[in-house]
């Protein structure tokens, strides 16, 4: 038997706010808090569901829960979003009523998750089949695609929808889904170019860089490092609990399921990459000859890569960023753009490119998921749109979002009242008018075709002359100053009211949810949403398959000089279409509330929830529902629930359910003014009456429970006694059986022992007889064996004697034949005997020589020059060749042990030998010293952190050198850095770069033949680096520096071979003078060190101590 349940069973707080008593804002918030603390996140207001975001996973969305709410009455179980989804689906399937589910709430309240739960429930309870499952999967998989391109991380929500979405799901007459149509509203495209602090750009940018393969990123000319893209904020690039790489794979899979072709996916990714590249384009000012300023692109690499991705000529797009063409009938005027205008054009292109791509995605998804049949469909709409927004600074976006919410509130009140009125009329209950706040006056203030704010904003944007936000605000002050829901500083002053909380550049509107202060700055630009025609035409010229579809207005053959519709006009038209669509459907409401701003579970902030309750109009909703009858219920469940309160209806009522309820109410003496009888339902006016019935039912249930317990306990005790009695009989029977079994076992055991003794005696007797017979047989066998052995031995001796005789004859014959052969061969042997003996002797000597080498071979060290002496002179050539081959093989084995780093060191040493051996006296002392390269450990030493960051390339050598002053010959300490492309000199104390010389500007290096560390870097005449002249330097690691310079210059593709000049006299160019540097040997004054002294303006003399 099915157990009947109700919303009122085991209720925590009040499950339906219509029954809340007393009703006040404080009791409303307290009831929400009480239920939230007990993990009850859903609460009803009549048929409206309030959903609290728990910020954690709860075990209330399992397949078992789906089955629990399937085909159940709305008020039969505790409040749940599944109950609303089931009610809407069954009304659509069984009553042929088109449905719409309106989900509202502010960012972070859980609207997107609520829409997913509704869609997943409908997908779970509708029909099955291959084609139906395919449609359901496509509908569900459209969500990840739209979330990737339309959702972003905000300070309030890690997965905030930055667009409004309305999806019509179409069903056939059986209730199976056929397809769907998605409409999007107001994508927040400004987020593409700029994000508030603590927020991210749209998810797809981070998912692409994190999850795409290296090959894909290479094709898209992208790098995984977020910091390389100006449009991506870095302070919130990584989000806890959000795996961008895994989500990218999910999105790719979802696009494949929805029906995107591989080339379409690649085109979409190319446009996303192009937006990132677009953000890296920067401009610099440039003055023209006529005194006007124009902009130029700083680095054209990103522009080039973007043009390659989109198939656009670079010069065309570059011109579109620098010039703007204005057409008026037959006249064209081209003006240059300054830097700020160029940045505006760049950002406008990025926003338009992304928003049009998003609209194309929605259209493409609609093509895949639309119903294939043309028969009439049943429709269920799901609306997931922004909630009312009140920020510290509210602009154009908040204005039109709040306008949309005003329209939704208007239709909500109208449809709720209409639904109440229809139910009263249907049930035959007298309808009384309900007073409520009608926000039509606010909607008219915004959308009136003549004096509405949107109309005036469009008029300002379209009129000639200077148009600014101030002129727009002046117009509002002129026309709307007397409106009771409009306030501004000027309108206040005209009424002699001073309001310092209202700035001069702002206006305030009294919405149904409260007063909102809007800053007029940016209203005109955001409403215009202009994209220069030059950029549209440049985009249309692209060879990319998708770009031409996104910018049809760029077609030169279809030039339209008419100004495009404004953003406000388009949104107003979209909202109007949406409202007309919703008017034709039966509404179902989900109001989403977030409990705190910290995105944390178990935290309930009263002030925040109260703010949302106010602007969602929930208290107004409760008052509308309670204005007539607070509770209504069908007669059957009402009688089933309360029949135990009356003796006449308990336990079974045989007549009609309505008569039973009437008898029940009369027996309970409920005042007649507290309820009314409808055709199929009873209506209860006051919640107190309902709670009184519930209290009586609870008391009655306790009495019934006591009675049931009494009967049950008596039955249980009697059963226990009967069980004991039965058990005693069973135990006695088992004991008697056990005693008889023991007696039988003893008799059986005695019989077995007697039998075993008898059988043993018989067996032993038989064994003795068998053993005697066996011994007789063995004796006969032994005698026969001995006799047969004697006969066999005799025969063997006879056969052996016969064989010996035959062998003797064969041996004598063999010896005779050998003698005859030797006599014949002797006369031929004497002629060739000497040569054969010689060849044998030589072979034996060589064999002995080679085997002896095995034990006398020297060690495997390449520098071991020992080699065993040759034993015979005729082996001289072989001995030498073997030594050479062994040495080469030994060197090869030694080289095979080298790592790549060791090879590079030996190659540098080898090159140093080729340059300096027998040419520079300092070279022999450097042979034993390893080439270290980075003597300063510049990448690890924090002292040189600034210098390391200033040098972009890998440092091949870092050392401290002395820069020689031509004026006095004294040295100044400098840090010498060598990279693949340049030589850098930096200050040793501060780490500041003094000079950077590209390697192609070096022509030669001059050093002396002596043991000093002086060298001169000679620069190419006319180069930018040669302005201050050549460099005369001194270093303790001269051999290594010159060798690395020579190797680096030789490997560079754009530089010539670096010449090394070794001479004791060479010329050095100091600015405009050439100075001769001369090296002499002598006894310097400063002990055993090299000294440099200026002799005259044309001579520097370097004294090098004489080596011992």
Describe the structure.
With 1108 residues, this protein is of the alpha+beta class. The model has no long low-confidence stretch (mean pLDDT 83). An eight-stranded mixed sheet has the order 23-22-21-20-26-25-24-27, with helices on one face. It is flat. 49% of the residues lie in helices and 16% in strands.
Characteristics:
1108 residues; Myosin_TH1; alpha+beta; seven-stranded mixed sheet; eight-stranded mixed sheet
Strand order of the largest sheet: 23-22-21-20-26-25-24-27
Count the beta strands: 31
Task: State the end-to-end distance.
Answer: 117 Å
H/I helix tally: 32
How many strands, what sense, and barrel or not for the largest sheet? 8 strands, mixed
Q: Give the overall form.
A: flat
- Helix content range of the residues, please? 40-55%
On the 0 to 100 scale, the average pLDDT is 83
Helix/strand/pairing category: alpha+beta
Instruction: Please indicate the percent range of residues in DSSP E strands (runs of 2 or more).
Output: 15-25%
Poorly predicted regions: none
**Rg from alpha-carbon coordinates:** 51 Å
Domain Myosin motor: 12-698
Protein name: Unconventional myosin-Ib
Binding site for ATP: 105-112
Region (Actin-binding): 575-597
């Amino acid at each position: 038997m099915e157990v009947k349940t109700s919303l009122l069973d085991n209720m925590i707080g009040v499950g339906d706010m219509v029954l809340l008593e007393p009703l006040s804002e404080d009791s409303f918030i307290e009831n929400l808090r009480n239920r939230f603390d007990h993990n009850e996140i859903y609460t009803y207001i009549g048929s409206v569901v309030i959903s609290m975001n728990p910020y954690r996973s709860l075990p209330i969305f399992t397949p078992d829960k789906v089955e629990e709410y399937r085909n159940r009455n709305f008020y039969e179980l505790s409040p749940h979003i599944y109950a609303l989804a089931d009610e809407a689906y069954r009304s659509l399937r069984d009553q042929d009523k088109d449905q719409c589910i309106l989900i509202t709430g502010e960012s972070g309240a859980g609207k997107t998750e609520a829409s997913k739960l509704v869609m997943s429930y409908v997908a779970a309870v509708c029909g099955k089949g291959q084609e139906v499952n395919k449609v359901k999967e496509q509908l569900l998989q459209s969500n990840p695609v739209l979330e990737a391109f339309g959702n972003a991380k905000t300070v309030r929500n890690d997965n905030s929808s930055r667009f409004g979405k309305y999806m019509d799901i179409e069903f056939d007459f059986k209730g199976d889904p056929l397809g769907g149509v998605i409409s999007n509203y107001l994508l927040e495209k400004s987020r593409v170019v700029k994000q508030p602090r603590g927020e991210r750009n749209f998810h797809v940018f981070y998912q692409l860089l994190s999850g795409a393969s290296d090959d894909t990123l290479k094709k898209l000319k992208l790098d995984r490092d977020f910091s390389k893209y100006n449009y991506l904020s870095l302070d919130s690039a990584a989000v806890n609990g959000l795996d961008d790489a895994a989500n990218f794979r999910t999105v790719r899979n979802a696009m494949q399921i929805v029906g995107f072709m591989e080339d379409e996916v690649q085109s979409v990714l190319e446009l996303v990459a192009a937006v990132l590249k677009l953000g890296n384009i920067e401009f610099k000012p440039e003055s023209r000859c006529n005194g006007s300023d124009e902009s130029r692109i700083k680095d054209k690499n990103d522009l080039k890569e973007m043009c390659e991705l989109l198939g656009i000529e670079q010069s065309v797009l570059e011109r579109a960023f620098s010039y703007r063409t204005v057409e008026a009938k037959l006249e064209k005027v081209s003006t240059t753009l300054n830097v700020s205008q160029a940045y505006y054009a760049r950002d406008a292109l990025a926003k338009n490119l992304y928003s049009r791509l998003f609209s194309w995605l929605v259209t493409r998804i609609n093509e895949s998921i639309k119903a294939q049949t043309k028969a009439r469909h049943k429709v269920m709409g799901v609306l997931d749109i922004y909630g009312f927004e009140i920020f510290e600074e509210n602009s154009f976006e908040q204005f039109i979002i709040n306008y949309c919410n005003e329209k939704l509130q208007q239709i909500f009140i109208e449809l709720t009242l209409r639904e109440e009125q229809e139910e009263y009329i249907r049930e035959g209950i007298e309808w009384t008018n309900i007073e409520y706040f009608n926000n039509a006056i606010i909607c008219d203030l915004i959308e009136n075709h003549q004096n509405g704010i949107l109309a005036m904003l469009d008029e300002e944007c379209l009129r000639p002359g200077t148009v600014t936000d101030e002129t727009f605000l002046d117009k509002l002050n002129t026309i709307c100053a007397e409106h009771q829901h409009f306030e501004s500083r000027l309108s206040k002053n005209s009424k002699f009211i001073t309001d310092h909380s209202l700035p001069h550049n702002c206006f305030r509107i009294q919405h149904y949810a409260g007063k909102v202060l809007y800053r007029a700055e940016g209203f005109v630009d955001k409403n215009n949403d202009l994209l220069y025609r030059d950029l549209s035409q440049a985009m249309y010229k692209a060879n990319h398959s998708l770009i031409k579809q996104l910018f049809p207005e760029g077609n030169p053959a279809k030039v339209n000089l008419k100004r495009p519709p404004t953003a406000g006009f388009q949104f107003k038209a979209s909202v109007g279409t949406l409202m007309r669509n919703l008017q034709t459907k039966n509404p179902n409401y989900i109001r989403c509330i977030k409990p705190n701003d910290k995105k944390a579970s178990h935290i309930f902030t009263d002030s925040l929830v109260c703010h949302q309750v106010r602007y969602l109009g929930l208290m107004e909703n409760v008052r509308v529902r309670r204005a007539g009858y607070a509770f209504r219920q069908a007669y059957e469940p009402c009688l089933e629930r309360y029949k135990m309160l009356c003796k006449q209806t308990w336990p079974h009522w045989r007549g009609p359910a309505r008569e039973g309820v009437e008898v029940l109410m009369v027996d309970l003496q409920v005042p007649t003014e507290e309820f009314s009888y409808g055709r199929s339902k009873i209506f209860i006016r006051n919640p107190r009456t309902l709670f009184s019935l519930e209290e009586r039912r609870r008391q009655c249930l306790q009495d019934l429970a006591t009675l049931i317990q009494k009967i049950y306990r008596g039955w249980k005790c009697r059963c226990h006694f009967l069980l004991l009695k039965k058990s005693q009989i069973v135990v006695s029977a088992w004991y008697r059986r056990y005693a008889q079994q023991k007696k039988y076992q003893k008799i059986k055991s005695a019989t077995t022992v007697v039998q075993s003794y008898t059988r043993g005696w018989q067996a032993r007797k038989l064994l003795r007889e068998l053993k005697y017979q066996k011994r007789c047989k063995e004796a006969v066998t032994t005698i026969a064996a001995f006799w047969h052995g004697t006969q066999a031995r005799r025969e063997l001796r006879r056969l052996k004697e016969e064989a010996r005789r035959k062998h003797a004859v064969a041996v004598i014959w063999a010896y005779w034949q050998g003698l005859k052969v030797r006599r014949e061969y002797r006369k031929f042997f004497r002629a060739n005997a000497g040569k054969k003996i010689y060849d044998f002797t030589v072979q034996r000597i060589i064999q002995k020589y080679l085997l002896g080498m095995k034990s006398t071979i020297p060690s495997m060290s390449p520098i071991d020059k020992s080699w065993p002496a040759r034993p015979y002179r005729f082996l001289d050539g072989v001995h030498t060749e073997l030594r050479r081959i062994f040495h080469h093989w030994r060197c090869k084995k030694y080289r095979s042990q080298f790592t790549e780093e060791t090879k590079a060191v030996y190659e540098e040493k080898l090159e140093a030998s080729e340059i300096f051996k027998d040419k520079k006296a300092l070279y022999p002392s450097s042979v034993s010293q390893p080439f270290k390269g980075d003597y300063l450990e510049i990448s690890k030493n924090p002292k040189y952190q600034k210098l390391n960051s200033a040098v972009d390339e890998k440092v091949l050598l870092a050392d401290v050198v002395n820069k020689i002053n031509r004026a006095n010959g004294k040295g100044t300490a400098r840090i010498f850095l060598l990279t693949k492309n340049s030589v850098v000199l930096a200050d040793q104390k501060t780490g500041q770069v003094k000079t950077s010389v590209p390697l192609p500007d070096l022509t030669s290096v001059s050093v002396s033949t002596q043991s000093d560390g002086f060298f001169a870097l000679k620069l190419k005449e006319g180069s930018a680096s040669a302005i201050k002249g050549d460099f005369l330097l001194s270093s303790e690691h001269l051999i290594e520096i010159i060798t690395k310079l020579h190797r680096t210059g030789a490997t560079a593709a754009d530089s010539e071979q670096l010449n090394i000049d070794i001479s004791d006299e060479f010329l050095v160019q100091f600015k405009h003078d050439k100075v001769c540097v001369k090296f002499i040997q002598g006894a310097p004054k400063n002990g055993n060190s090299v000294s440099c002294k200026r002799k005259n303006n044309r001579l520097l003399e370097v004294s090098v101590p004489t080596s011992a």
